[in-house]
Amino acid sequence: MSLIISSRLAAIPYYEPGLTTADVLARYGLNAAIKLASNESPYPPLDQVQAVLRDGVAGLNRYPDGASRALRSEIAERHGLDVDQVVIGNGSCELLLLAGQALLDPGTTLVYPEPSFGLYAHVAAAAGAQAIGVPLDAAGRNDLAAMSAAIDERTRLVILCSPNNPTGGYVPASAVESFLDGIPEDLAVVLDEAYYDFVTEADRGRPLSQARHRPNLLLLRTFSKAHGLCGLRVGYGMGSAAWVAAIDRVRQPFNASTLAQAAALESLRHPAALDRRIQETIAERARVAAGLQGMGVRFTPSQANFILVAPDADDGIHERLLAAGVIVRDGTALGCPGTLRVSMGTPSENDAFLAALSKVLGRTAPVEALAVRVMPTKDSQQP
């Protein structure tokens, strides 16, 4: 006998996770492998964060603060917001799903960029709404003019992603502002800024100023990337009190664990140490891009902690890199066939990727790309 389940389930797309290191070691009989597939930080949580986590274990017999008061207050103070303009989620993924529950109904639509983060279409399907994917522009950015044209009277939610995953394309703040000016003031918009910390453009903070006074705009950020807290799942949204109240109505009361809240709060208290890690990743992004350029390998210029690579090779290149112990993401699963999404690792991990790629392509990696690590200046532009 089969269960009677909601018809919405059939419409929900499957999110295909990347291979784990254990998967690759077992499949190819390797002793070691490096993982550059999931846009994680290659560095563990800061030492001070690890200490807080160890100390917090003893209190796990108690429920967490359901309102995440201390963490919300810290984020609000840092960004010039009221506490009721901040919401905490079990990763920013949960906040996306909660936004769908709060705003979408059957017969309504969600407009989102495509290809982009695979959860966006899931958000609509889970609420019984229709997902309308709008192709990116030639630079791998959200095509805001085309997205605006896709909005009609049925649209209840628009999701923007900048920098976009999996391309790394960044939409200038002025373009976001023009887009917001051209749509109905009561149409809810989420700007997913999961990779905000790695942006080097001078206007990267301007969307937050828009979220302070536009009641329809919610920014999403995460502690999973720059802070190295993927495994604890904590993200946050910043916007109007109305936006936050709508999410709070559908949010479960203890959605962010005690350890997640404590780790995120402690990580925020060490901005200098965090910035050193961010600058290391930005420098490695520039160095890997220079290495790819030197090998004649096409890629999309990125403002995130990954690069989308188009190696102009046969379809077996992903498999050959795996066999060499280098785990990158096959772009086919991300809506970008013929590409590889490569997360930035440590310098030695990035060297291993460039060396393995040059070997499988039969090209020579430029010596300077493997030997020189150029730190970006304030005004540096990525290649």
What does this structure look like?
About 40% of the residues lie in helices and about 15% in strands. With about 375 residues, the chain is an alpha/beta fold. The chain folds into 2 domains: about 10-35 and about 270-370, Aspartate Aminotransferase, domain 1 (Alpha-Beta Complex); about 45-270, Aspartate Aminotransferase, domain 2 (3-Layer(aba) Sandwich). The strands form 3 sheets. A 7-stranded mixed β-sheet has the order 2-8-7-6-5-3-4, with helices on both faces. It has a 4-stranded antiparallel β-sheet with strand order 9-10-13-12, covered by helices on one side. The protein has a two-stranded parallel sheet with strand order 1-11. Helix 8 (about 205-215) links the parallel strand 6 and strand 7. Helix 2 packs antiparallel against helix 10 (about 260-270) and helix 3 runs parallel beside helix 10 (about 260-270). The protein is globular and about 55 Å long.
